[in-house]
Amino acid sequence: MALTQIQSEMIADAAVTTAKIADANITTAKVADANITPAKLSQPLTQGTAQASTSGTSITFTGIPSWVKRITVMFSGVSTNGASQVLVQIGSGSVTTSGYTSLGGLGAIAGGVGGTTSTAGFVMGDNSASAVRYGTMIIVNITGTTWVSSHSIGSTGINYFGAGGGVSPSLSGVLDRVRITTVNGTDTFDAGSINILYE
């Protein structure tokens, strides 16, 4: 059998037709120009509206769609006026404030480590009014209404870096909100901005 014939038969068997992809909800209208963009996807990668973290004791993002399975919380130059650790909480209809298992660790460039645990949310290990935070926390649905987190944060204010993770309790329903606050709930944000990305 000639090579070209073998190739043509292989291509024929691998051909992608609208009939073969109809059940996957991919239509020719979505791929007609050969470019897959977020607008053409039924569950697109979506960026929220950045909120200034320059005042108040908490920042909340609501209206997260029911299909979301992964949320990235982004911190840019975020600081507070006190030494209480930053805490990220999630919820369905209202914010869940208990039942978490989380740890935020802290390491210095010159050495030394520390850590903080929390049952009130996903905690970050930094605990200084001089901390200026840059980085992300990723929150992923593991099963049902339970979510796990991991984060990687650097602080230019105190030359520390932080990392950690945790797991939420089972929420009362589908996640629809994320709140960023502090462990004591009274320290106020005084610089930077926070945004979310979900998919």
Overview of the molecule:
The chain is mainly beta. It folds into two domains: 3-39, no CATH class; 43-198, Jelly Rolls (Sandwich). The chain has helices spanning 3-13, 18-21, 28-31, and strands at 46-47, 51-52, 59-62, 70-80, 86-92, 94-95, 101-108, 113-118, 122-123, 133-143, 146-155, 160-167, 177-182, 189-198. The strands form two sheets. Strands 1, 2, 4, 7, 8, 10, 11, 12 and 14 form a nine-stranded antiparallel sheet that branches. Strands 3, 5, 6, 9 and 13 form a five-stranded antiparallel sheet that branches. A hairpin with a 4-residue loop joins strand 7 (101-108) and strand 8. The longest helix has 11 residues, at 3-13. It is globular. The termini are far apart.
| Share in helix | under 10%
Which fold name corresponds to the CATH topology of the largest domain?
A: Jelly Rolls
Which CATH C-level class of the largest domain is it?
Mainly Beta
Ends: how far apart?
Answer: 48 Å
- How many domain regions? 2
SSE pattern, N- to C-terminal: HHHEEEEEEEEEEEEEE
Topology:
Layout: H1 3-13, H2 18-21, H3 28-31, E1 46-47, E2 51-52, E3 59-62, E4 70-80, E5 86-92, E6 94-95, E7 101-108, E8 113-118, E9 122-123, E10 133-143, E11 146-155, E12 160-167, E13 177-182, E14 189-198
Antiparallel strand pairs: 1-14, 2-14, 3-13, 4-10, 4-14, 5-6, 5-9, 5-13, 7-8, 7-12, 10-11, 11-12
Spell out the key features of this protein.
globular, 14 strands, Jelly Rolls, single chain, five-stranded antiparallel sheet, 199 residues, mainly beta, nine-stranded antiparallel sheet, 10% helix
